[in-house]
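Data deposition worksheet. Section B asks for the primary sequence of the deposited chain exactly as it was used as input, without tags or linkers unless they were present during the calculation. Section C holds the resulting structure in token form. Section D is free text for depositor observations; keep each observation to a single sentence. Incomplete worksheets are returned to the depositor.
Section A, Depositor: J.P.
Section B:
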Amino acid sequence: MQQRFAILISAASLVITAACSQSDTGITTAVKTKMAADDTVKASEINVDTHNHVVTLNGTVGSQAEKERAALIARDTNGVTAVVDDIVVGPVPAATAGEKAEDKAYDAKEKVEDAAHDAKVKTEDAAHDAKVATEHAAEKTGEVITDAAITSEVKTKFLADSDVSGLKIDVDTSNGVVTLNGTVKSKAEMDKAMAIARDSKGVKRVVSHLKVG
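Section C:
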């Protein structure tokens, strides 16, 4: 008889130990996790509190089905000895609706800002492209005028110098490089012509194809 009593006491102790092995915090976490994974109540605002393995549920849900499902999940959680269901069935709290409105307003603001930024970037790109095109056109025009002016100046100097046969020397200028073609009477005349060209304004280099003859 005493042996059977001892066995019963031992079994009861194991049951009590197993029930107490799950902490209140662990139970709360387990209930919340199950609710978050459940399709019926995962989006509901349900508060879970556990004290001495008794789970208390409160909050507002949109339907009776959500309320009943939440209580069932809590009851079926390991370690729970009782469930106090204080959940209210009713409309979604105004605060949640307000938060949704704020989210929509924020999204709209972001879209407006993004559109404004894109427009600004496009305008800046267009202005930059126009500026580059204008600069290239100006540079090209400048090169033509400069080359023509160089050619004119070199020819004028040749005609004014008695040691150079200006009419027999062709002058061509490209990007500041002067090329001389033609026939001169002597090596001295060739050197004088090259010196005149080199000393002219805007000349970068002189290429001589002059021949003595």
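Section D:
The longest helix spans residues 94-160.
The radius of gyration is 49 Å.
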